[in-house]
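<context>
A single protein, sequence plus fold
<sample>
Here is the protein in question:
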Amino acid sequence: MRISISLFRASLLSAALVVPAMSIAQDFDPATAVNLPDGFRIEQLVELPNARAMSWGEQGTLFVGTMSKGKVYAVSGLGSASPTVVTLGEKLKMPTGVAFHKGDLYVAERKRLIKYPDIEKQLDNPPEPVVIRDDLPGRGLHAWKYIAFGPDGKLYMTIGAPCNVCDEPGQGVIVRMNADGSDQQVVARGIRNSVGFAWHPQTGELWFTDNNRDRMGDNMPPGELNRVAAEGAHFGFPFCHGRDIVEPQAELAALGSCEDSVPPAQELGPHVAPLGMLIYDGDMFPGQYRGQVLIAEHGSWDRSEKIGYRVSFVPLSTDFRQARGYEVFASGWLRDGEVFGRPVALLPAPDGSVLLSDDYRGAIYRISYTE
């Protein structure tokens, strides 16, 4: 899928001048409040209440899902003096997952997978969605879903565990299926709540984030970044958390062992809530970021002192199969214990910059680099 780079660049020049006033944290200006490495800058492009996952259309439309608002947005002319925002769906059930494929927009709700056919030609009068599936597991916690089409043309979807910690057949997995919802297969299992994954452009391997269980104290267990080296592999939940933390409930601990499950490629901060991720493959950022991982950390709730509320950076080995560090890339949404924003999803833009959604402020940011 190709989007016009020249039009995208031109439309962004005046973006920071036309952002509507925010209803929360009025004193927060991302351009000055967010800390980034030298040469990087961040700007807010548009206000979208409860913005979550994002996907590009072929004509440059940005599609954005939500959780609490029950809406899906389509933004045309993003970054121009007058971007157009169309609401495609109303009163949907946690339509967090969005993915564009062959002209159609796919949306994942709690229990349904729907699509808006040929959507970019119908933004003036959006059609009713076509229901592809209405049998997705959707009860309990972590019922929201993240979706994306893989290099194989299949639709991949996360199905979270419906609990803090439990063993529930058919949940706690990443699956793939045909675009029509048929032939569902498990790609990875033993996952509590993944809200982001990406394929490495050099190796083709799938990487994903995972939120570990709560109620084990401030400093355990860690969040996770994982690599799927073998299809169908088990990543430890609910009997093992992080690399070697055994589940304290005996009946769940007896289901397996840390030694027999795949350890995380990188342990992240405890309770930072890693959500969206990307593997940078653009030309704008310096060379040391090419093929490396950026993660949106939504921020902790189950901790006496808040952490997260940032974007982290995980550099990889030269063969792109091992993590070799974990550091902060962008911070400033948490100041002296006060929350000013909660990063959710990362999306590469056609000019090499990166978009970042924030469901707390209801905003889409652009992170760019100039020498």
Observations:
- The radius of gyration is 19 Å.
